[in-house]
């Protein structure tokens, strides 16, 4: 089967979607399928990677770290040349036109809903909840009609489709359990590479530094802990448009903004030095960064909204999105003793082999 995937919100330093695409592509290839991925420049027009054929098309920078393929003609031309047996569209906004296009060409389609539109409208655009739900429902109803299958990474993500009766399937993401493992022994170093001070709590922030991820909550929780006399240090693992603003606002706090880490092994080593991870995104539809921390044996504090609680389970704590509540949750987790095995066991529930099997089963339903 020739499976073509296309995504717009993928960049060299982007996170979850890029990682998921790579792992699914590698698994598809391992099971004998021909796999293509169409994404924006930069990159060679065509290259063969471990995940299959990767095609980069001309794109326009947005100023938010992404470049988008706005022009439809080059996309349609390439897809026509590739003649897919199945088309996966990993974009619910800028590439929505591909559902009707593929139907006209007799190509079965699957749209991956990696974002919660209602949550983004509320959090990023400050829309009233009712208006956000009505707007999302209007757009989503059309997408549900235009695509053969809607697939979501969590029950939270699927809820906004199911509230008007759409048959949204849930396929959770996975984690590279080989690369992300608990360290064999406790490192003498902190996540930011310093010699580990005796008794200092090492916290890492997991997540992109953008408004919808609410990264300021992590810094607020750190400030609350420091005000309570807790000797804690935060290492921020994440980049995004709010980075400079957050660095300025936290200049008086014990925090390090880590440079971008590209390699999985290097990231796992840094994560494994932490005592606790904070993943504050209120509208996360999965939370791959939090899952990678769990796989390294690090418990996670996350909000009581969004999908992160589905991922974290018993390997951490869930709290309202307030600094004092997150500080309370952090102290609760730290007071439970060594949660390495609990975190690792929770992470092992999510693997790419099972995720891929579910994806291929849905593809098989399409003919």
Automatic annotation (TrEMBL):
Biological-process GO terms, alphabetical: carbohydrate derivative biosynthetic process
All residue ranges annotated as the Glycosyl transferase family domain in the record: 195-340
Record key words, sorted: Glycosyltransferase, Transferase
Domain Glycosyltransferase subfamily 4-like N-terminal: start-end pairs: 15-178
Domain of life according to the entry: Bacteria
Organism (species): Kytococcus schroeteri
InterPro entries: Glyco_trans_1, Glyco_trans_4-like_N, Glycosyltransferase_grp1
GO molecular function, one term: glycosyltransferase activity
Matching Pfam families: Glyco_transf_4 (PF13439), Glycos_transf_1 (PF00534)
Protein name per UniProt: D-inositol 3-phosphate glycosyltransferase
Keyword Manganese: no
UniProt xrefs under PANTHER family: SULFOQUINOVOSYL TRANSFERASE SQD2 (PTHR45947)
